Amino acid sequence: MLRIVFLGNAAAMPTPNSPTSSFALKTGSTFLFDCSEGAQRQLMKFKISYAKVKCIFLSHLHADHFLGILGLTQTLNMIGRKEELIIYGPTGTSEFMKNLFSQKQLRTNFPIKAIDVPRAKKGIYSDKLIRVDAFPVKHNAPAIGFLIEEQPINKFHEEKARGLGIKGRLFSEIQDKGEITIDGKKIRLEDVTFMKYGKKIVYSGDSIPTANVVKYSESADLLIHDSTFSDAHNASAKEKFHSTAKDCAEIAKKAKVKKLILTHFSNRYENLDILREEAGKIFENTDIAKPGLEVLV
Ligand SMILES: [Zn+2]
Q1: I need a surface site. Which of 96, 97, 187, 196 has the fewest CB within 10 A?
Q2: Does residue 231 sit in helix, strand or coil?
């Protein structure tokens, strides 16, 4: 199960109701997908450990997506963090972060490592629980989207295994050795197990509609997509390299995702329901990102 908490949903600049777009993924550690201004305060407010932020995944280097890094790293420094913080982002991220953190006022006593992801890459981050892939999207700056996937696990076909005489301790024995022999018959682990694939979440970052998002979101459990504008402002959306709620719904439908969450809203929309309704006409299971919205996938 993957747990997501939205920290903000605004595009370009914060509103009285929300900081700009970013969200946290909580496993044993905390992972941030974009880090908008005030992200640390949102983490505190929603009781997500800011001290456990392990990596920050930046969709691109526009200020509404990274300003929160400055405050967060200063707080982490003050609480005595020693562990390295890793920041992944598109081309230019490592140079930008190097310049930023070379300013003596921003230096930290813990290492900050920034890694450029210039093209589609599987497993930019991977641990026992999750894997993160990155892929290019289309914005008016180098930009990437992310696929977050739970690691697959090897599960027993219980009935089949028991039918072949595997019981009790023999389950761990076959796992350790890869095969066992029962009544003279050799049974291989792969004969009695199958791979159970984990849950899948895709985040577009800021982008016009792209084939890449459709491809990476195929059958995903959740798609989180830039929905800066409504269809009534489609021309502005394309001019500024953003998507409309309708675009998001069409992508979700094409990719056959299970759920769509719209985010990164222009501050011209006081009532976000119009965006949800617009998308909902094409893709029913659509929701609106709001600060504090928690989604279990
Ligand atoms: Zn943005």
Answers
A1: 196
A2: helix
